[in-house]
UniProtKB/TrEMBL annotation:
Name of the protein this chain belongs to: Flagellin
Keyword Secreted on entry: yes
Domain Flagellin C-terminal span(s) in chain numbering: 409-492
Alphabetized Pfam families for the sequence: Flagellin_C (PF00700), Flagellin_N (PF00669)
Domain Flagellin N-terminal: 4-137
Protein's UniProt keywords contain Endoplasmic reticulum: no
PANTHER family per UniProt: FLAGELLIN
Known function: Flagellin is the subunit protein which polymerizes to form the filaments of bacterial flagella.
Record's subcellular location: Secreted; Bacterial flagellum
Length: 493
């Protein structure tokens, strides 16, 4: 049946041509934009995923910039700490030279003062974009990553870099909760006399037949039978024993009789002296002469927090140290040692040690003409931390006492600057690793986005050519279908 009102062939050809044109338009869009999913209408799910990933890429680009800034800041701090270490090493060389008495200590002190000024200049200049990691105690957070969870929530991750205060500031003692229980001072005063051990002999009037030995500080005296006369009293024999010990010429060691006892006295600072006797006249056979020093013993279990301050009073002198971030009681003891040494108290020397209980101990010796009556230790929270090079500006090698104290203190300062440089070096390496990871992660995300939304250009090219041929055929089919009704005219001729 033919109809001039309804052309089914034309309608089919037209629908086919519209479909071909639609596919051709989509293919042309893919070729021009390079994307198979250019908008949400192309594929809403893939488009949404790609947009989330693109936002993450933008975020990681910003993180990469943050890491670059942080790496530069830490690199400047590391270089500054290494330079400070080199300068402190030079100061140590000067301090070692000052240990000799036949050198010009005033000129050495001038060199030390110049190096100290240079260190302060380096610490002050070691900043990048206004941030100085060698001053202050607050840690610095560097944005390092964005962490997206399965529920879509996002959180930021940071690399926390602790500052290393390499200034020589004294800090400020706090007024907070008392910490005095963490620092126990031995019973004063800080005496300037020696420590004594008494040796008791058997109550015998005749030592002429006795055979015995006495060992003092590693030196042994032999008293064979016949050394003393039968007529020698015990007191006379003890006097002779004391004379023999004194004749050994042991530094800081002296002996004397006290009634029927032999007393051996040591004025050696920070050093115990072994004392041993063997033989029949001796009742009290062995002993150890205690070191001459008063102690401040710090807790082995309590924690040191930033701002914790400790203070030692020696007569009219007060030594203070306030701990910084991450410090221990060893740092506190060394800081107080530097504070006492810098006070230049006549005859006073210090040393830091660890006792058998694992506690840090600050030892204080007095070799002056008189005892120091006041000796106390206290502590309090909420202070302002002392600098990591506390005591640097107080190094004074113009005297024997100052030169000796400086030798131990400069070692602590060098170790502090080495620790700071090592920490910054480790942090810089971590930042570099994270930066490299972020770069590779960003590339992976971009590749993933491309896999989701980018057009396959080879496929699009082949499809374009096929659709163009189909379009031509569709046009011809429509033309043929449109000509079909004209054949009806022949029926009416």
């Amino acid at each position: 049946m033919s109809s001039i009102l309804t052309n089914n062939g034309a309608m089919v050809a037209l629908q086919t041509l519209k479909s071909i044109n639609s596919d051709l338009l989509k293919t042309q869009s893919e070729i021009s934009t390079g994307k198979s999913v250019a908008s949400a209408k192309d594929n809403s799910a893939l488009w949404a995923i790609s947009k989330v990933m693109e936002s993450d890429v933008k975020g990681f680009n910003a993180i990469s910039e943050s890491l670059s800034l942080g790496e530069s800041t830490v690199a400047v701090a590391r270089q500054g700490a290494e330079t400070v270490t080199d300068l402190l090493t030079q100061i140590k060389g000067k301090v070692v030279s000052a240990q000799e008495e036949n050198v010009d200590r005033d000129k050495i002190q001038t060199d030390i003062d110049a190096l100290t000024s240079q260190i302060k200049s380096v610490v002050g200049a070691a900043q990048f974009n206004g941030l100085n990691m060698l001053k202050g105690t607050d840690s610095v957070d560097i944005l390092s990553s964005l962490d997206r969870l399965s529920d879509g929530s996002v959180s930021a991750s940071n690399i926390s870099i602790a500052r290393a205060d390499l200034s020589d500031s004294s800090g400020t003692y706090g007024t907070g909760t008392s910490l005095s229980a963490n620092a126990t001072a031995s019973a004063g005063p800080v005496a300037n006399t020696g420590t004594t051990e008494a040796i008791t002999f058997s109550d015998s009037a005749d030592m002429s037949g006795d055979d015995f030995q006495i060992t003092v500080g590693g030196s042994t005296l032999n008293f064979a039978s016949g050394t003393f006369l039968a007529t020698d009293t015990e007191e006379l024999a003890i006097d002779q024993i004391a004379g023999a010990i004194n004749a050994l010429g042991l530094e800081g060691i002296s002996a004397a009789r006290n009634g029927s006892d032999l007393e051996v006295t040591s004025t050696r600072a920070f050093e115990t002296v072994d004392l041993a006797f063997s033989g029949s006249p001796v009742v009290d056979g062995t002993a150890t002469i205690a070191e001459r020093a008063e102690n401040v013993t710090f807790s082995a279990v309590s924690k040191v927090n930033a701002g914790d301050g400790y203070r030692i009073t020696l007569g009219s002198n007060v030594a203070t140290y306030v701990a910084g971030e991450g410090e221990t009681f060893e740092d506190v003891a060394n800081g107080l040692k530097a504070a006492i040494d810098s006070a230049g108290i006549e005859g006073v020397s210090t040393r830091v040690a660890t006792n058998s209980n694992g506690e840090q101990v600050l030892k204080i010796d007095n070799d002056s003409a008189s005892a120091i009556s006041t000796f106390t230790a206290v502590g309090a929270q909420d202070g302002t931390a002392s600098g990591g090079l506390f005591g640097l500006g107080s190094i004074d090698v113009t005297s024997n006492q100052g030169a000796e104290a400086a030798l131990g203190n400069v070692e602590v300062l060098i170790q502090n600057s080495i620790d700071a440089a090592a920490e910054f070096g480790s942090a810089q390496g971590r930042i570099e690793t994270q930066s490299d990871f972020i770069s590779k992660l960003t590339d992976s995300l971009k590749s993933g986005i491309g896999t989701l939304v980018d057009a396959d250009m080879e496929e699009a090219s082949a499809r374009l050519q096929a659709l163009q041929v189909q379009q031509q055929l569709g046009v011809q089919a429509l033309s043929i279908a449109n000509q079909a009704p004209q054949s009806i005219l022949s029926l009416f001729r």
